[in-house]
Amino acid sequence: MPVASRRLMKEREEFAELWSRYELTATNQGVKAIDHPRAGVMVFDHSVLEIPDRPGIRLMLHTARPGTETRGKVADLLDHEQI
C-alpha cells in the first residue's frame, strides 16, 4: 500500500472505510517527473484510484519518490508560499 494511502486511512474515516471494503482500486501506478520552474526536477510515485460505484470519480495520489530530493523541494516550495 502506498505511503499516502496509509496516511489517508489514518486521517480520513471515509477513505479508510472504502479502502477496507475494496471499493477503491488502483488503475494506474507509476513514476512521474515534473520539472518545476523554481524547484527543478521532482520525482513522484503516483497512483490513480477509482471508486467503482462512483463512475468518473478518481483520486490521484502523488508521493515524493524515496531516494530523491523531492520531499525537501516540495517542503521548500510550501514554505515559500507561506510568505
Strand-helix topology:
Elements: H1 3-11, H2 13-20, E1 25-36, E2 40-50, E3 58-64, H3 70-82
Antiparallel strand pairs: 1-2, 2-3
Distance between the termini: 35 Å
Shape: elongated
The residue fraction in helices comes out at 25-40%
Spatial strand order of the main sheet: 1-2-3
Structural description of this entry:
By secondary structure, the chain is an alpha+beta fold. Helices cover 36% and strands 36% of the residues. The chain is built from three helices and three strands. The protein has a three-stranded antiparallel beta sheet. Strand 2 and strand 3 form a beta hairpin. Helix 1 packs across helix 2. The radius of gyration is 15 Å and the shape is elongated. The chain starts with a helix and ends with a helix. The model has no long low-confidence stretch (mean pLDDT 80).
Concise overview:
The chain contains 3 helices and 3 strands.
Defining key terms:
elongated, 83 residues, three-stranded antiparallel β-sheet, 36% strand, alpha+beta, 36% helix
